[in-house]
From TrEMBL:
Protein name: Asparaginyl-tRNA synthetase
Enzyme Commission number(s) from the entry: 6.1.1.22
Keyword list, A-Z: Ligase
Top-level lineage group: Eukaryota
Length: 423
């Protein structure tokens, strides 16, 4: 990284043939300082792992700067889509009183000014913390429950906000802090309407970017990638990236049920058991390798919707699936979907919400979350509700997929994951 300079002079017609004008400099002024020898950014190949140790500096590299601009334009394209669809953008709280997913992987909020009172009846090394909000609160894992409350007022809402998961996962797809794009729509009783919204949203946003100069910049960046990156197993080249974007703007994304997905996976396993490390079973859920296979073989370049998962695999708020007209198929499923894409697997998750009061309470009891500071959520049904549904999209994963970057930590300016939060 060289020092920045301010150039002053005259802008005149060029005497050369390779350009129309040139700046004839009369004064050059150095701006700021730069310890060139000690600068961590050097004019040579540096691994992504090394660059993650200097997140405050790596944004200056052309590749990272391009990702920042692509992120900004993607947000603009999505915002424009929702405006055209008459959605209301909202801001939901970061600090919440409950765990939306019920998985328990939450960060607890505390204040360093919290009063600590020693209890004489307890051991000397124990203390009772006086909570800032009187009771334990958490960093949100999803805006969904609050979006449902707001949707009852204006029918269609969306938000793009940070979410937090205290997961110990150390993979290229997981972060402890990440952005989720979430939306809720009222007067919806057919899951296909929610899937249509997701498909139209992504197709519109990607088509907008594809018609902009940043798409050409992205392809040129891929063509100029250093040999070390090209030889990486996770590298996504120009052709593969074009296929990804082409699949996103294509029409009629495949939709299969979870039961059919298990049949497809079972058939593949019977023909080649070594294909999967985990044999697919209906009750066990889908592993990442299973999702990757479905996205590749069923989608044929397009994203794939997998619908109607078993009730026990999903959270309490999902509505039961509508029975098939012929009465066939499992009855213990919920009206939900996961959208799968090659390599990154799950990109979007959505469902119809249980809008009936007594049925919701029964589902909460079944899942063991009744009484978990969710009385206000039950009020949304008790005091008037309508059939509704929504979805959540991993925004950083989407950016990872569109840029062809192999690790989600490299599309976030300041990534946080287990044992890593430096600046």
């Amino acid at each position: 990284m060289q020092r920045a300079v301010k150039l002053t002079g005259d802008w005149r017609a060029s005497v050369g043939s390779k350009q129309s004008h040139e700046l004839q400099v009369s004064q050059a002024t150095a701006l700021g300082e730069n310890d060139a020898e000690g600068n961590p950014l050097q004019p040579k190949y540096q691994t992504p792992e090394h660059l993650r140790t200097i997140p405050h500096l790596r944004a200056r590299l052309p590749t990272n700067a391009l990702v920042l601009r692509l992120r900004s334009q993607l947000i603009a394209a999505l915002t424009n889509f929702f405006n055209q669809e008459d959605f209301v953008q909202t801001h939901t709280p970061i600090i919440t009183s409950s765990d939306c997913e019920g998985a328990g992987e939450v960060f607890t909020v505390s204040s360093n000014a919290a009063k600590v009172s020693e209890q004489k009846s307890r051991p000397e090394d124990e203390a009772q913390v006086e909570h800032f909000f009187r009771t334990p609160k958490y960093l949100t894992v999803s805006a969904q429950l609050h979006l449902e409350a707001l949707a009852q007022a204006v029918s269609k809402v969306w938000t793009l906000s940070p979410t937090f998961r205290a997961e110990l996962s150390d993979t290229s797809r997981h972060l402890s802090e990440f952005y989720m794009l979430e939306a809720e729509i009222c007067f919806v009783d057919d899951l296909s309407e929610v899937m249509d919204l997701v498909e139209n949203m992504l197709r519109s946003a990607v088509a907008t970017l594809q018609a902009s100069p940043i798409w050409v910049e992205l392809l040129k960046m891929k063509e100029a990638m250093p040999r070390e990156d090209v030889e990486d197993d996770r590298f996504v080249g120009v052709e593969a990236l074009q296929q990804r974007w082409g699949g996103m703007v294509a029409k009629d994304w495949p939709r299969i049920s979870y039961a059919d997905a298990i049949l497809i996976l079972g058939d593949a396993y019977s023909k080649e058991p070594a294909r999967f490390a985990f044999e697919p079973f209906y009750a066990d859920g889908l592993q990442a390798e299973h999702e990757r296979y479905l996205a590749t073989t069923v989608g044929q370049g397009k994203p794939v919707f997998v619908t109607d998962y078993p009730t026990m695999q999903k959270p309490f708020y999902m509505a039961p699936s509508v029975p098939a007209a012929d009465g066939k198929g499992p009855t213990d499923t919920v009206a939900c979907f996961d959208l799968l894409v090659p390599d990154l697997c799950e990109l979007v998750g959505g469902s119809l919400r249980e809008h009936r009061s007594q049925e919701l309470i029964a589902a909460m009891q079944l899942k063991g979350v009744a009484g978990h500071n969710l009385g206000w959520y039950q009020d949304l049904r008790k005091y008037g509700s309508v059939p509704h549904g929504g979805f959540g999209l991993g925004f950083d994963r989407l950016l990872c997929y569109l840029t062809g970057v192999g690790n989600v930590r490299d599309v976030v300016a300041f990534p946080r994951w287990h044992r890593k939060c430096d600046c």
